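Complex 333.
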Amino acid sequence: MTIETTIENEMEAIWVVADQINGAINPVTFQLLGQARKLADDPARKVACIIFGDEIGGLTTSLVGAGADIVYKAESSDLKLYQQNIYKDTIVALAKEKQPDMIFLGSTSVGRELAPLVAAALNTGLSAHCIDLCLDEEGILEQKIPAYGGLMTIICPSKRPQMATCAQGVFATPEMDEKRQGITIDVPICNSEFQKIQTLEIVQESLEGLSIETASSVVAGGAGAGDTKGWDLIKEFSDTLGAALGCTRPAVDEGWAELDTMIGQSGKMVSPELYIGVGLSGEQQHMVGIMEAKLMIAINNDEKSPVFEQVDYGVVGDCKEFLPVLINKIKES
Ligand SMILES: Cc1cc2nc3c(=O)[nH]c(=O)nc-3n(C[C@H](O)[C@H](O)[C@H](O)COP(=O)(O)OP(=O)(O)OC[C@H]3O[C@@H](n4cnc5c(N)ncnc54)[C@H](O)[C@@H]3O)c2cc1C
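Predicted structure with flavin-adenine dinucleotide bound:
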């Protein structure tokens, strides 16, 4: 079946901007397409995906299989790498023409930079790091973020498109439907001669140790580490246990841990069998990142810490005293 592509039936569409680097599409793109597909079913409307890159013709089938009806393909030898201005100007020009109702991007390095640029250029709102996207009774997008100790709903009632970013793992990856039919439309890139900012090279940082996204045990360290020595102790505990080491925001701010290992709303979503939070208070922005963890334990020196209400087992104690004992016990066993 071929889908007709009149301007009329592209109106009111839900768009996803694909995140593609070196020919690999980030899983968050498929996850957002799956969620867009659910939102697009009632009321019925189209899901479109915009993909940028060089020699990306082979990637469009998977975008359709994950839920896209239309793939806008912006292909150019100038797009071997992500180029901020070209991506932004092309999305803005296309959005002004097609008038989508919503645009979703992944909270990736590219999405975090691109989304606010596009939103500002389209004079619309943007909710970053949403942990759910649904529709209210009138079909307005409800953009859920953790705030004030609960879930807050942000809406963008008058401006269009409604824009949101979500991290990888917020939505499940949809099953690939290889029989789905969609169409690909080539779109010209907006490439002004003078690019204010150019990407010259993308360097993949290699992180030490296990990945928090795939490890079956994760230790997360927080501000309670106190200093570098305290952080090294949490790292030693994590290594002894054979767990991956994650962290809260203050550990990144203090320079103890890399941003890539931060768990939570603006970090990574993890789903280990075992999660141990050390010296962290259980703030919601962190805890949304471990909603899928099976067994949760917290070590905190404040017996009234809210983290204890959210975990299966709690240890009240100073981690600097407790961890060395625990490390020795694990080594002896
Ligand atoms: C929009 C937004 C997005 C955010 N996104 C994230 C995110 O993705 N991830 C994230 O982590 N944060 C995020 N934050 C920050 C978040 O709100 C919290 O500030 C942060 O999670 C708190 O980190 P913490 O628990 O380590 O520190 P704190 O809240 O300061 O807690 C430290 C805990 O350590 C305990 N402690 C102190 N000393 C010891 C000791 N010796 N032994 C044992 N326990 C001790 C204390 O009792 C305390 O409970 C975000 C905030 C905002 C506004």
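The first helix runs from residue 7 to 10.
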